[in-house]
Fold this protein.
Amino acid sequence: MGILDKTITTIFALLGGVAMVGVATDLGTVVATDNVRELHAYEAAPRCSAAPSTPAECRWTEEFTVSDIHVVRSYQTGDRNAVLTSASGARWNTGFPNSGPILDQLDEGDRVTGTIWRGRLTEITANGDRQETGRAPAGGSGPDILALVLTSSGLLVIVVCAWRLQRRRATPAMEATLGLSIGLLFVGLFSAVVLFVLADFLAPSVADNFWLFAAIFCAGAAWMTFMERRSLKAPRTPGIPI
C-alpha cells in the first residue's frame, strides 16, 4: 500500500510538500540574503590598526603555529581541522570545509598567517595560497543549492498529491511521480558529493558553485525522469489505469 492509496496520507504528503517549498523560500530569500550581506561586510572590513581585545568589525592578521592536523579526502567522512596557536599561546581549534589548498600541505610546527574578524578565525594563508576556515562568511550559494533541491521535490509532491485528490484512486503515473519527487532528494545529495569530489581535484571554490551544482542536479533529474517514463511504458497488468 502506497502513500497515495489513502486520502489522509495524501493530505499529509501534500502538507509535507508545502513545507518543503516554504523552507526553500526562506532559504532563498532570507538565509541566502543574510549570508551575502555578511560576506560583503567581511570583504569591505578595514584592517585593524591594533590587535582587538573583543570581536571587532575590522580584520586582524597574525601568525600561528600549526599542530594536530587532521585531513581526509573530500569523498571521505570525517573532520578536517588543525589547532592554530598564536604567539600569545591562544589555541584555536579550527575546522575547514576542504582539505586544500593549504591544510593538506601542512606539517606539524608549520606557520601560517590567520585572519580574525568578529572574533572568528576566518582564513589562513601560506606560500601564496589562501584557504577559508569553517568560520568564514558563507555566500548565498549554499542556501540556494538546498533551496533548488527542496523546491524541485516539494513542487512535484504538491502536484502529484493535488492530482491524486482529484481522482478516486492512485494510478501508476501518480506513484511514479511521487517516487521521482523523493528521488530528487537523493539526486541533490549525489550532486553535492560530486561537487565536493571535483573541488578536491580542481579548486575549493568549485564546492560552492551554484551553476555547476544546478547542471549536475538537472542532468540527474532528467535521467530519473527518463527512467520513470520508461518504466511506465513497460507492459502492465490489464485494468490498471495510468
